[in-house]
Amino acid sequence: MFNLINPDGSVRDRLPVTLDEMKDLYAAMVEARAYDDKSMAMQRQGRLATYAPFRGQEAAQIGAGAALRPGDWVAATYRDAALNWMAGYPWRLLILGRTGDERGGQVPEDVYVLPPSITVGGHMIHAVGLAWAEKLKGSSRIALTSFGDGATSEGDFHEAMNFAAVYELPTVFLCQNNGFAISYPTVEQTRTETIAEKAEAYGMPGVRVDGNDVVAVMVAVKEAAQRARSGKGPSLVEALTYRIGPHTTADDPGRYRDEAEVTLWEEKDPLTRVRRLLERSGAWSLQWQQTLETQASQGIESAVAWAEAIPIPEPGTLFTRMYAEPTPPLLEQAGEATHG
Amino acid sequence: MAREFRLPDIGEGLTEAEVVRWLVPVGGTVMADQAIVEVETDKAVVEIPSPYAGVVLRHGGGEGETIKVGEVLVVIGEPGEATGDEDVRMAPEVEEAEEAPVVTTAAPVATTAAPIVGTISEEAETLGSSRSEMGGQVKALPIVRKLARDHGVDLADITGTGPGGRITRQDVEAQVANRQTLPAAAAAADAEPVTEPVTVTTAETTEPSDVGTRRPMSRLRRTIAANMSRSWAEIPHVTTFDDVDATRLLEVRDALTTRHGVKVPIEALVIKAVVPALVAHPEFNATVDGDDLVLHSTHDIGIAVDTPEGLMVAVVRDAGSKGVLALAEEVRRLGEGARARSLGVEELTGQTFTVSNIGAVGGGHGTPIVPPGTTAILSVGRARNRPIAYGDEIGIAPVMPLSLSYDHRVIDGAMGRRFMSLVLENLEEPALFLAV
Description:
Chain A is of the alpha/beta class and 340 residues long. Chain B is an alpha+beta fold and 436 residues long. In chain B, the strands form four sheets. In chain B, strands 9, 12, 13, 14, 15, 16 and 17 form a seven-stranded mixed beta sheet that branches. In chain B, strands 1-8-6-3 form a four-stranded antiparallel beta sheet, with no helix packed on it. In chain B, strands 5-4-2-7 form a four-stranded antiparallel beta sheet, with no helix packed on it.
């Protein structure tokens, strides 16, 4: 497994980042965690619909996001808010979407991110389609799709991997292997030892990285993106990580996993290890930490305030957002909905 | 201005939740998003954070009570707002409580607003228990209602002693017992004071104290705490103390180091010395599982590693199949891995016997606690030069203190002695275990 930063903050090798870049990555993870914590709290307060927390997976998402160029496509899941945010999706729209307002899925024009996919695995195929389009257009954009270990058991995984490999499409497949497909442990849903080795069957490179090591993830995804951009086709990056929280706010992980396992993974926390690394380099102080947290919290709070100030949509709008020209049955239904 | 926070649907399609524990008492201050209460739904126990900052004016229900989705969970006032009884939401209940007929609770109903913040929560609970009496809604869990129906008991005749005046299983059973033994005295029994006097809340829970600091324990620390408590509660411990002449053991270690140029941790030799004793006495390499004793076929030896965050136990798999040099390498690797937090769960769980080298931090004898899931642990202290008798002569030799704790349910004293004799013999003459 490819790894550069140990959980105690020591490094395996020279890091290909400057101290300032390291601090930026850390700040991004702090902000992502603030969003995650706030969303969990809001769901418990009845202000958000079901929420899928990503605590523990910040490095995998921030590292991958940091490896992309502006304009690269991202097609990701309901647990990938931090990755989507890194790629330009604003917090306020992510929050709006979680309040149940579909307008949270109206991605700004200059943001190349698909709305979070709730369907497990379907978006991998979308990403391959986007990559295909970019290849036909002759652009230098690539498409990254992020999915969980559970999605690799879906037929869509096979289709997407195979198609991308056959047509040498500029795709990066990022699997955040967080140990569980809801309650089903990874070891019980695949006979291979790693997800990464599945790449071989499709004729593409596969690599397993320490998904809690933000720099390792960034380096691996950068390499895969570079390969895609230079016409060498897709790659699979498996980021081995762990979902510290429940699958969603409607889940009780205590029923299917051992608390001791969670403890072990908390010791490998992606933020803590970078903080320790910065401490070793004399680049961390409590005051800086507090500043980061305050700024992150203020940013998230203002996104929340924005989303909560949006009036609830009129029922009629439900029928107008799917097609440019509404179909007759939709018009009929819209009439019934608004006039009884 | 007080604001109500109504219980939201925190799962998917939940209708109610039971209050498990209030984390902030009435009168306590709370910050926005600070956990205020722990509730149990039919899915999980979850903490609910407060949507507002301020002072908790009222709990919507006592611990053990069920609150429906949409009902008031808690009322929060502005920061600094008094918890006084002028609060409009509390007022009607106070009045009705006073009108309630024959309140049997012995608690001297805290009549006026108590000046000490810490007692206000009790006042609220007293009010709560009175509230249940005022006609209509009798509080009882469905299972208790069924129990009452089965015994033909009318819940309206019972004074609930549970939280918030809820009728408990014991209340119903007491009622049934009274009726059976002394039907006429039922009313009198009913009138007996409820045995739940107002308990005095210690000031420390509410008043900021100037003695020391309070810090949350890390998850690792909490896990250790839970494991230690479990072992201590479940396992009758016996600890025996021995000293062993470590002259030969240390010579062997130095010889190995010189020949191979690697440091040989003392644990490596101790593990090698212990395995033959575990083979001879498999009860020391076992797990109590209900009424069964599971004797393990391999010897997976846990070694205690001291890390800045707390003690971790890493596991040397199948130690019996490894030579001393391989064991030395494994002990070193696990030690470094545990300190760097890079070990996987499979390397940190499932030991069948534990060796704890407290000599590294200068330890002597001790009373180690048997880790859950095992039956024994050997702690090894630091070897120090001591006078020792050789026949009629007194000499000086490095003496290593050993402490063995074992599960007395499984292992008798005599067996403990036999096991330890073998270990001591091996440690005194390493040729005995190196030859196997």
